[in-house]
Specification:
This protein is mostly helical. The chain is about 55% helix and about 0% strand. The relative contact order is 0.20.
Length: about 240
C-alpha cells in the first residue's frame, strides 16, 4: 500500500499521534484464545489494515534484524506467487511453526480461533477468487490453478470449545475502529473501499518493490505456471535484497 518513500513519514505520524497505543486497545478486546502455534492458519495470510502494517514494519525493523534478508525474499516471493503456488504460505511463519510477528499480528489473525464457528463458515464461503481468476484469464490469458481459486481455510482445528467466542458484528466493530486509524493517514474513500486491507507480506512487498516491478507480477505468474520456476522472480528477489529497513 505504501512505498518506502511514504512509510517513514507515516510511521512518524503514527508514533506521534499514539496510533499504536490505540491499536493495542482494540486488540485488548479480543478474547484470549489458546493458540497452539500449529501454523495451519498461516497457509493463507489474512489481510491487515495500514495501521497494523506500520506496526508490523516497525517490529520487523527493530526486532528481527538478523532475518531481514530472509523476510525480504520471502515477502517478494509471496507477492509474485500467491496466485500461482499453493504452498507459498506466510513469510512470517518460522521453521518452528511460531509466528515471527506474533506480538503485533493483525486483528484477522487474532480472531481466527475465537470467532464463532458458524460465523467463520459463513465468512469463509464469501471468499471468492473467481473474479480474480476471470480477470487474469481475460487480461493476461493466464489460467490460475483451481487449487488456489477454490481453497478455503478450514476452521481452526485447535480452537478451544469453551471460552467466549466472538460474533461477526463484534469483529466488524473492532475492524471499523482500526480502519478509522487508517483514515488519519489516507482519505476515507480509499480506506473504506478496502484498499488498505492487504496481507502483511503484500504490504511489505509493495514497500520493497517499485511500481514497475509490481506490474510484472502477471509475467512472473505466467512463467512459473509454465515451467515451475521463474528466472524473473529470481532477478527481482536479488534486486529486492538491496532494501534496507
Amino acid at each position: 500500500m505504501l512505498p518506502i518513500s511514504q512509510v517513514y513519514s507515516a510511521l512518524a505520524f503514527a508514533e506521534s499521534s499514539r496510533m499504536f497505543e490505540a491499536l493495542e486497545k482494540v486488540y485488548a478486546q479480543v478474547p484470549d484464545g489458546d493458540c497452539r502455534r500449529c501454523g495451519r492458519c498461516c497457509i493463507d495470510p489474512p489481510p491487515a489494515a495500514l495501521a497494523e502494517y506500520l506496526n508490523i514494519y516497525r517490529y520487523i525493523r527493530d526486532h528481527l534484524g538478523d532475518r531481514h534478508q530472509e523476510l525480504i525474499r520471502k515477502a517478494v516471493e509471496f507477492f509474485y506467487l500467491e496466485l500461482a503456488e499453493p504452498g507459498v504460505g506466510c513469510p512470517f511463519l518460522g521453521e518452528d511453526k511460531n509466528c515471527l510477528i506474533h506480538p503485533v499480528r493483525p486483528l484477522s489473525c487474532r480472531v481466527y480461533n475465537v470467532l464463532h464457528p458458524d460465523d467463520y463458515e459463513k465468512q469463509n464461503r464469501t471468499r471468492d477468487l473467481e473474479k480474480v481468476a476471470e480477470k487474469y484469464q481475460r487480461e493476461h490469458g493466464i489460467t490460475l490453478p483451481r487449487k488456489i481459486v477454490e481453497f478455503r481455510l478450514p476452521y481452526c482445528p485447535n480452537a478451544e470449545p469453551g471460552g467466549r467466542k466472538m460474533r461477526t458484528p463484534e469483529v466488524h466493530a473492532l475492524l471499523f475502529g482500526i480502519l478509522m486509524l487508517d483514515t488519519r493517514i489516507l482519505p476515507s474513500q480509499v480506506v473504506f473501499q478496502d484498499q488498505t486491507m492487504l496481507p502483511p507480506p503484500t504490504h511489505l512487498a509493495v514497500t520493497i518493490l517499485n511500481e514497475g516491478l509490481r506490474a510484472r507480477r502477471p509475467d512472473v505468474i505466467r512463467e512459473y505456471l509454465a515451467t515451475g520456476e521463474s528466472p524473473l522472480l529470481e532477478k527481482y528477489m536479488e534486486r529486492a535484497a538491496r532494501f534496507q529497513f
